[in-house]
Amino acid sequence: MKVVQVTGYGDVNKLEIGQKATPEPKDGEVLIKVKACAINNTEIWMREGAYGTGSKSGWRPEGVDFPRVPGSDITGSVVKVGNRVDESMLRKNVVLFPFTSTGEEGFEHISDDMSFIGSEYDGGYAEYVVWPAHLCFDMPLANYIESAVFSVSGLTAWHMVEQIQVQPGETIMVTGSNGGVGSLNVQIASNVFGAKVIAIVGDLELEEKLKELGATHVLSYKSANLAEEIMEVNGGPVDAVLDVVGDALFSTSLQVLKKGGKFCTSGSAGGQKTELDLRTLYLKHITFYGSVLGTRKEFKRMLQAISEGKIKPVIDRTFPLEKAREAQTYFKKAGKLGKIVLLPEE
User: Fold this and answer.
1) Of 52, 145, 172, 344, most Cβ neighbours within 10 A?
2) Which InterPro entries does the annotation name (predicted)?
3) What sign for the dihedral angle of Cα 125, 126, 130, 135?
4) What domains lie within the chain, and their CATH numbers?
5) Contact (Cβ atoms closer than 8 angstroms) between residue 340 and residue 327
6) What pTM does this model have?
7) Cis ω on the peptide bond leading into residue 67 (within 30° of 0)?
8) In this predicted model, what pLDDT tens digit does every residue of 32-81 receive, in sequence order?
9) What is d(CA 320, CA 317) in angstroms, rounded to the nearest whole number?
């Protein structure tokens, strides 16, 4: 089968097109013909070594075993089943829950043996992939491309919103609102949980689109008076911040949070290290949350909300699998809205 593999830590030149034997499903597994695979920061940071220190990076301490086929937001059709898998799975259109774990229900995402497809397992930058049958769920939408844009970003965003226990009528500030996780944070917080959302972006040309997704206000991080603008449009401080940016908006986030507010981060695209005056933390009684991925029950709740039309796919553009380098390069550009999707068959 045709694959794109990461051959080691480095830039996009470490992505190489090649051929690999089509995998065979083992006991409890299915073989899936990949129809679409959306791009996430996760596979880019894995390639760049951003998840670890020194020479190792990945979701596990031992680092990634190269070459590795990346890709975790996968939809496709089941074409073969292994032993102990019901034949009714054949020809089913599925979306993949993106990791395995032996953690107890509700704590799967923080188990020490959590292993991620596209990092610890070969992923969706390929024509076929194998995956445990019990981690393959019915697609929430009829379209492969539209159903592929939620798995990692959506699960991460859903878990963030549940983690801070968003309540109807609260004001939530969302950074990086034009990205995969950010645009879903906007939708989930507003359309599912009933919050008022202040979306932070760079380009205000995206304002109307973000309001269509559920944002009440849209502001630019390029403003010299961003904190004042946030407080003005909200009539005071915000209840919580959902952040994927990191250092670039960290100080502003803490400044606009109310006393007893909540700050939840799942990314650091704008800087992985920052400064924190601990007095701000304790004098304002701020609660910090670190968040990534989520549980299988949360995944099911998210898929249900998608199928009900409460969360909509936001897609910037698609690329053929052979253009994975160009796709990952484009992914890192500012100003886009939504997900980038690779198509093995295009």
Assistant:
1) 172
2) ADH-like_C, ADH-like_N, ER, GroES-like_sf, NAD(P)-bd_dom_sf
3) positive
4) 2-149+313-343 (3.90.180.10), 154-290 (3.40.50.720)
5) yes
6) 0.92
7) yes
8) 999 999 999 888 888 887 665 445 555 566 778 899 999 999 999 999 99
9) 11
